[in-house]
Amino acid sequence: MEIRKNIFSKCICIAVLIAMTGASLSGCGRPADHASAASQASSPSRTGCRYQSQVAKTADFILSLQCANGAIRDCRGADTVNTDSNMEYALIGLGSAYELTADRKYLDGVKKGISWLAARECMADEKWKGSFWYQYDTDGKHLSCEESKNVLDVRGVDTTSALFAYLLYMDHRMDPDSDLTARYRDNAISALEFIRNNNLDTDHLSRSSWQKDSHGNWTLYDCKYSADQGDVCLGFHAAGKLYHLDIYRTLAAQIQKATEEKLYDDTLGRYCTCIESNETDKQMNSFDPIQSQGFLPWVFGSDAVNQHSVSWLLDRVQPDGSISCYQDDPGYALSIAMLGMGENAVNGKEPAASYKWLSTHLSDPETGGIYDSAKSAEEDCNVAGLCLIALTRMLPFEQPRMYGVTLNDITDVSVSEVIKGLDAMEQKPTVRVVMRPELSAASYKNILKSLHGHAYIMLCPCDSSYLNHYKSADRYVDRYRECVDALSPYVDIWETGNEINGEGWTGLSSKEASEYMYGAWKYLYSMGMTTELTPYEFRHGDQSTDMIPWLKKYVPQQMRDHLDHVLISYYDDDNDGVHDDWQSVFDQLAAIFPNSRIGFGECGFSKPHAFDKAFAHQVTAYYGLKPFNDHYEGGYFWWYWQQDCLPSENNQAWKLIASYVTDGSSG
Hints:
By secondary structure, the protein is an alpha/beta fold. Helices cover 42% and strands 13% of the residues. The radius of gyration is 25 Å and the shape is globular.
């Protein structure tokens, strides 16, 4: 906040506000890996997801295709299983449904499927150890492919082996005590070693598969599909995390780098389909290139390349919500799934219109399945699985902890100096940009556009000290409308209320503050934006209503169920270092906001502070905190980062905070 009430000394302090927030899962999604997974396996249903009913129906459809032995048919009435990795995508979808609902039947379906796949993997023949056939029947017998272009059969598909390793990781994050991790370790390692030794090229891109010709010879199909690189990256990264193998983490990073450099086309603004015979396929006449625009960002995360890729797909959304990427595009369900997955990964806007079109035109109300397209009645298990991933907002890996800093007045600092300070951090940070009420939203456009490629942006349209500038809840919401219209492409998280429960300096009663924040949140939620609330923590008794009771009384239930982030503001020197037990505070916050990620939204000193022992102690005390529960994401958003840490060069204050901004994901 800009003007802070020092409760302890009963005086008013002037504070120049600078805070930054980190991006993470929002809405229905939640991280799960090692430390966080322990509570996830038994977590209650996260009822805040607006697509809960659709998710349950579609997940049940996948279970209806699963045989008693664990095999999942490719589609209704089919006798084929896992053709081109179909079953594996369906199992990931079941996992996403379990993470949303905590319904054990979905987890059991995943486990049965993994065991069925493990039994299909070739483990005896050294030449083919770790590989799978292209397809099977429901009993697990290998089925030859239909002859095409002198190809009699296919095996050693990179995607199938890689996704098997990822499924084991996913099972572990859902159920940390699962014995599958150890039981199938050799299977996972063998699968990845097969890719590494047989499919992976020296340019760090994976070649698709091995094909049998009419003479009985097996040859490598030297086609490097862009989407396949995402699958292979998933597998290597998953095994690296699951089994603590740095070589696989390194390979995953190399694959991502090579894919973005060799398969992304700057002129087109999207990924190309593949590289085959040293030629890059830039055509757009089938679903193949569409998949990469959403799937690769989902795997790789939010960077400039993947943001552009998702934007390319977003630009193909039609007025009715359907997606058309080329002439005579039949309107694929998977195009919508890819857009949803991509938007989730880059913290974009939820494609609500496309989801509505999917539900209206492509969802089978009787089976729960998803039609392949507007021109096809086929209901494939992989289509259902990938749609589930999008609707549940599942991300493939636990996201790094959020590490934020604040820019209290970006108009009063060199943007180039800010960018230099952000770029030098190991992990992409989150910057909280605080707006001044006298400046138009449009005046911030170029600034945010410049910053957005270097950090996630959490926008604070109204600091707590400016609340009384807006004389009604309607005028407050109008400010948000103005900001969304001008700035939404460059904002990842929207702060709906800053220190909204503060007494005195805000100029609002609790009832008015509730109306302000709820009005802003309701508007942002209707627009599909990622939302955050910053309540103010203080010593017990320093205000008429403590923070936790205030949140229970004044935050409407709908908002509690759907807020993406709740990040508390606390300043030691405002409160003589006295606060409630943090473990208790964050456990109570997790109970009040069951679908939110929680942490700190402001910390630091109530005025700029030179680097000294007190500064170092304060940074370490907050940025160094360990997670309190599986909802905890960090945040912190040092308020005077702008004043204390810039210029960043040879700045001990910047160096200390930056030392914490690392990949803090578990495992």
